[in-house]
Amino acid sequence: MARPGTVINVLDTTPPRSAPVGVDAWFITGFFEKGPTAAQQVRGMTELEEIYGLRQGANPVAYDSAEAFFREGGSHMYVSRVVGPAPVKASTANMLDGSAVASIKVVAKTAGAWGNLLNAEVIAGGTGTERIIIITHDTYGELERTLSGDKAGLIAQSAGLKNADIVSAGAGTLPAVVAPVSMTAGADDFTNATEVQWTAALDLLTSDLGPGQVSAPGRTTSQAHTALLAHAERCNRIALLDVAQGADKAALRAAATATRVPSGGVSRYGAMFAPWAIIPGVAPNTLRTIPYSAIEAGMMARTLNPNQAVAGVNGRSRFAVALVPVGTAPLTDQDREDLNYDGVSIARIMYDGVRTYGYRSLADRSQYAQWVQLTGVRLFMEIKAKCEQVLERHVFAQMDGRGFEFSSLNGDLKGEIAPYWNPMDALYGATSEEAFHVDTGSAVNTPESIANGQLKARVSLRVSPFAEEVILDLVNQRITEAL
User: Fold this and answer.
1) How many helices (H) and strands (E) does the chain have?
2) Which residues on adjacent β-strands are paired with residue 97?
3) Among 154, 241, 245, 365, which residue carries the largest CB count within 10 Å?
4) CA atoms of 280 and 387, how far apart (whole Å)
5) What pLDDT is stored for residue 261 in this prediction?
6) Cis status of the peptide bond prior to 85, with omega within 30 of 0
């Protein structure tokens, strides 16, 4: 029998974590200076630069978008780096031992031209049978070094280095002392990247990483939009689609319409924001432009209620200072209404700065009217992720004849959903019964489904809409008439 009191267990291994269920993460693919091609979580610009390098002048969009995301309030993102079909890791020539036999070679950790700025030096170690490898950078000097070791020991230490690996280059023994040797031949092959490489990078952002928003910042082709929407549907995410910088009203409407042509409902997993945003530059008194998806993703990340429209007063940018014009003429109210109708959410300069002033999904309103407001799409994304965790707890549970397991599942689902009604107000109804319903009864769990080993539940939700248009009747009453 357990005694009253507290117990602290010290474990030797980290227990497995549940899959993420929050919808604040941003998943992106893009060109970066360096880094792994496997998807990796990043929690700030310091970590981003350590893993993926510094801003590239020729390919800055992904880096600049990541910075905007964190500046807007985002706390974590998953990055999948895109490279061309033939990337190359920079490396030194073979380093020889005392008998001029190839001993080791030093290779950059990841592919890219960044590795061509690295150098490797071999110095004497603690004894005559040991060496130390020093990795330096043309601009920043020494980056790291190994401990003293023999050939096998140096190779084994590669796992602890951040910038380079030490590999065997032949039968040679201990490498000879040598002055810094440049690494060469590193290449990203960015210019040859096609939809094949972009889609492969997107596929690495697997569904087990959880829900959230997904983008390929700066990618505006119909193929890119199609791939992002398919990914969002498959992985329970929302695709934030970008449009060409400076695109006019007609081009924006055409891009939005194109997402719905082959979709069959998939377009409801996407949203399109325009125009591009202008943010402070790297150097003082300069500016940069980025796709608005980065701004919106950051603002979504700082909004706790997924059913809260990240627009208007809740869509005020902290980082954007201006907007790239839409076409050559200012948008009229009718233009904005037309774009909003087509699912293009427009940002505006209002009062205290840049604000998102639309929050529509790309759903075809003629067939999927209940999915037009982006709030409902994001709310369902989060609730789906949470319900999936509830269901997982009931896998392999006994379905007894008295209905205890069905009642248990019903209660677990209600407990997960109830906070969205009260206190969050994301579900619409004066009572919880009006706002949502969980059914695990005989209409859902039939004798046939039970016999097939299936435990079922059906959840119905009434999502609270947002006020897209606020109307005031202002009356000038004559003084001789009662108010």
Assistant:
1) 12, 20
2) 175
3) 241
4) 41
5) 77
6) no
d(CA 277, CA 322): 6
Strand pairing class (458-461; 436-439): antiparallel
| pLDDT tens for each residue of 280-294 | 999 999 999 999 999
For the stretch 176-202, pLDDT in tens is 999 999 999 999 999 999 999 999 999
- CA–CA gap between residue 249 and residue 441 (Å, rounded): 51
The Cα 325–Cα 274 span in angstroms is 10
Q: How many CB atoms lie within 10 A of CB 479?
A: 5
**Of 116, 112, 109, the residue nearest 144 (C-alpha):** 109
Tell how strand 287-290 and strand 436-439 pair up: unpaired
Using the Cα atoms of residue 217, residue 307, residue 381 and residue 390 in order, give the sign of their dihedral: positive
- 8 A C-beta contact, residue 210 and residue 22: yes
Q: Which residues contact 166 (CB under 8 A, 6 or more apart)?
A: 104, 105, 106, 107, 133, 146, 154, 155, 157, 158
What SS3 class is residue 380? helix
237 three-state secondary structure? strand
Q: Which of 349, 417, 359 is nearest to 383 (CA)?
A: 417
Res. 16 pLDDT band, cuts 50 70 90: very low
Supply the DSSP string of 146-192, one letter for each residue.
PPSB-HHHHHHGGGG-SSEEEEE-SS--SBPPEEEEE-B--B--GGG
pTM here? 0.91
Could you please state the CATH topology (level 3) that the domain comprising 95-182 is classified under: Immunoglobulin-like (2.60.40)
> Going by DSSP bridges, is the β-strand pair 141-145/164-168 parallel, antiparallel, or unpaired?
unpaired
Phi then psi for residue 192, to 5 deg, are: -100, 5
- Find the mean pLDDT for residues 374-396: 96
| pLDDT attached to residue 6 | 56
- Tokens standing for residue 315: 């869509």
The CB density around residue 38, as the number of other CB atoms within 10 Å, is 10
Report cis status (omega within 30 of 0) of the bond before 423: yes
Q: What is the DSSP letter of 304?
A: S
Taking residue 289's Cβ as centre, other Cβ atoms within 10 Å add up to: 20
- Pick from 40, 33, 402: nearest CA to 188: 33
Cβ neighbours of residue 479 under 8 Å, at least 6 residues apart? none
- A 10 A CB-CB count for 3 gives 5
On whether the CB atoms of residues 157 and 146 are closer than 8 A, the answer is yes
- Fold adopted by 26-83+192-371: Rossmann fold (3.40.50)
Domain parsing of the chain, residue ranges: 26-83+192-371, 95-182, 394-483
Cβ contacts of 136 within 8 Å, gap of 6 or more: 118, 119, 120, 121, 142, 143, 180
The answer to whether 40 and 263 are in contact (CB under 8 A) is: no
